[in-house]
User: Which sequence fits this backbone?
């Protein structure tokens, strides 16, 4: 994996923060919970799906809906503020979350309402829906455009769209507060307006200085200098910090070669030197190690994991990271695949035992994941590159997030997915599947044991073959 791929991989991870230097950060490590309940129409089936951010990763939650369309669940969160993604009407509605709050969701005939018995929080939920209606599509369009902004004209168009987005989002905040009162989580929305889209170009020094919109404190060619440890309670700001620091630290370590374990650790160590304070450095280092766990097998991160954890000076974050690495040990080569329940496109439960005697490549993906779809486009070329050996490999796609059945089947047809196609049931599968990034590829041996978790993507296999670099898949086949 070359440096550019590492940077791109880290920038693809998706994870919102505030500017008050006086905010109390002592509660960042505290555990809390919130309640979500509501009533939805039959189109939801028997599950209400959501995801919640954390300091290390996002995790999926599936809440059972009873026969009358009612649901209620208490969800654990970390610290004073996180973010939830509610999957409604084939889209993700993001809302701020705080401990001891209740969110009531009602959705009938495609109309969504969010409410709370807390008057101030209810105002935030009302604005979150307004923001979703006005800004969501533009946000997604900017995300896609950021991948392809290579020509001068495309770069200029991207910069203009980001500046317009930030200005319009802030105007939306101002107009809403003028008519409805101050948002309880004003800083959450203000940082979401800025760092949410600037995060897409955190590794683009040719573009970042051209972003002039936003609060006065953020109108800088180096917006990272505005971030302190106080801001680490906001998901999108810490996500931006991680991307920005990682990009610059990577340039300091190695510019164009395969990265060894020492290089990985040197990037993590260099990041501390360019972070504004110890808490920001700790959060960035934790993100970096977790990002490695999203893109690399356990055996690759193990040699530098302990050194990274030892360098974390924040006790609760060091503890979280230690637990994450210990959990990741379950994915090591030769281990049994953590249990999971898969449903195929005919509605039948699928057992991987039926493929024993044959290597299996599991492709975990999500609807709306651009890199996942790009890998689908390369699948035919990938199989051609394997030649006759392709017949010895069983590919199983695993759609994550329990999508609407018809929409999933439409994707199967659209991308000509002619392998075995399944959906994973998170509530009946090991928790680790709820925290993986997309796409994730897992190579399973003929004996049903893990050969390599986070094995090379099809596009990476093709690239390595072009450069005569051996892959784990080649060895297995």
Assistant:
């Amino acid at each position: 994996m070359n440096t550019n791929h590492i940077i791109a991989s880290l920038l693809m991870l998706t994870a919102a923060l505030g500017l008050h230097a006086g905010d109390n950060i002592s509660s960042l490590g505290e555990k809390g919970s919130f309640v979500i309940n509501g009533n939805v129409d039959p189109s939801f089936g028997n599950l209400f799906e959501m995801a919640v951010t954390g300091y290390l990763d996002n995790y999926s939650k599936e809440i059972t809906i009873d026969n009358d369309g009612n649901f209620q669940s208490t969800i654990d969160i970390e610290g004073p503020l996180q973010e939830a993604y509610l999957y409604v009407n084939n889209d993700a509605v993001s809302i701020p979350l705080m401990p001891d709050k209740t969110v009531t969701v009602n959705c009938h005939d495609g109309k969504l309402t969010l409410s709370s018995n807390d008057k101030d929080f209810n105002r935030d939920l009302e604005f979150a829906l307004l923001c979703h209606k006005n800004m969501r599509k533009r946000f997604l369009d900017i995300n896609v455009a950021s991948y392809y902004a290579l020509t001068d004209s495309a770069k200029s168009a991207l910069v203009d769209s980001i500046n317009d987005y930030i200005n319009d989002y802030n105007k939306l905040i101002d107009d809403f507060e003028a008519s409805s009162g101050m948002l309880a989580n004003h800083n959450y929305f203000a940082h979401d307006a800025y760092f949410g889209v600037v995060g897409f170009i955190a590794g683009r020094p040719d573009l970042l200085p051209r972003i002039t919109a936003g609060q006065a404190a953020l109108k800088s060619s180096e917006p990272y200098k505005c971030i302190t440890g106080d801001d680490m309670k906001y998901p999108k700001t810490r996500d931006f910090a991680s991307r920005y620091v990682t990009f610059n630290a990577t340039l300091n370590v190695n510019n164009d070669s395969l990265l060894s374990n020492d290089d990985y650790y040197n990037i993590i160590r260099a990041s501390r030197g360019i972070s504004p304070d110890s808490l920001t450095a700790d959060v960035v280092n934790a993100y970096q190690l977790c990002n490695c766990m999203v893109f690399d097998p356990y055996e690759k991160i193990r040699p530098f994991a302990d050194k990274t954890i030892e360098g974390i000076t924040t006790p609760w974050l060091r503890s979280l990271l230690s637990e994450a690495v210990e959990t990741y040990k379950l994915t090591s080569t030769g281990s049994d695949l953590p249990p999971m329940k898969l449903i195929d496109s005919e509605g039948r439960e699928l057992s991987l035992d039926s493929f024993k005697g044959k290597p299996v490549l599991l492709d975990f993906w999500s609807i709306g994941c651009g890199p996942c779809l790009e890998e689908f486009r390369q699948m035919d070329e990938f199989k051609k590159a394997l030649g006759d050996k392709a017949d010895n490999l069983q590919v199983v796609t695993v759609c994550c997030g329990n999508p609407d059945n018809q929409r999933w089947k439409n994707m199967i047809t659209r991308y000509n997915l002619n392998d075995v196609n399944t959906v994973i049931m998170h509530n009946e599968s090991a928790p680790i599947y709820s925290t993986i990034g997309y796409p994730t590829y897992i190579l399973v041996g003929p004996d049903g044991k893990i050969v390599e978790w986070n094995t090379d993507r099809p596009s990476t296999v093709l690239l390595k073959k072009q450069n005569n670099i051996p892959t784990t898949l080649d060895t297995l086949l």
Remarks:
- The first strand starts at residue 31 and ends at 40.
- The two ends are 21 Å apart (CA to CA).
- The CA atoms of residues 152 and 158 lie 10 Å apart.
- Residues 119-148 form the longest helix (30 residues).
